[in-house]
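Final report, closing paragraph on structural work. Over the funding period we assembled a curated collection of sequence-structure pairs, and we close with a single example.
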Amino acid sequence: MVFESLLDPQMAESHPFRMFLIGFFYASVGVVLSMWIFRQWMSLVMVFLTVLASVPLFYNTLKFEEAKDKEILDERRLLKQHGKALFFMMMVFIGFVIGFAFWYLVLPEPTIQTAFEAQTATISSINPATGKVISIETFMKIFSHNMSVLFFCVFFAFFYGAGAIFILAWNASVIGVAIGNFVRRGLADILTKMGFLSLGSYLQVFSLSLLRYMTHGIFEILAYFIAGLAGGIISVAVIRHDFASKDFNHIIADSLDLLIIAIIVLFVAALVEVYITPLMF
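Its predicted structure, as stored:
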């Protein structure tokens, strides 16, 4: 497989910022190929192709991180090593988001309606916290929903290895469309008020849109990656029959630590989404 030979976890951990470009490239290839071959089902096929390109790297990363569990017994040092993988995974995810947002902005309107149909429907069905009303009910609703997504990340990672990447790539496509919508509305408002658009206008609106959705989103996605890593490490250990070895207890303990950290980060994400983001926007 070409993608498998191009990247490996050690290279990704050594050059995490390059992984942003890799994520952008994977998402772009997914959009272009789905538009060319599967236009009628673009909104789902583009995500599938993005995931297909990413699976070799993410699965090899799970194996690489599981091997660290056997070599490193100090939990603090081990979590620090996992942090390297999580960082480059986040860079890939941000590349996905910017890639999908880019194509949402540059494609013609008729194509957008077909290309991002499923993502647009998903956004329309979501009722985010808006305004300046702070509600504990809203917080519990968002946190419980995010916990269900986290559960599916663990579930997919455990049973499908790198399967959690599908949920994350899908979320990246939805966030990318939301950012694209925000940018389009912002540029339309500027054009109405000023009568022209400058490069500064584009940069201002795009930066504001990233801040709007990534203020809490960065915590959510990090939590999902941590949970996916926990489930994936156990999955690899089981596949390798490590459950019969003395290292398996250490692997389970490390995965549980990761899962607890993921829940804490997700709790923080819900706090930011309900109590901070609405006050900023």
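Residues 127-133 have pLDDT under 50 and may be disordered. The radius of gyration is 20 Å. We thank the funder for supporting this effort.
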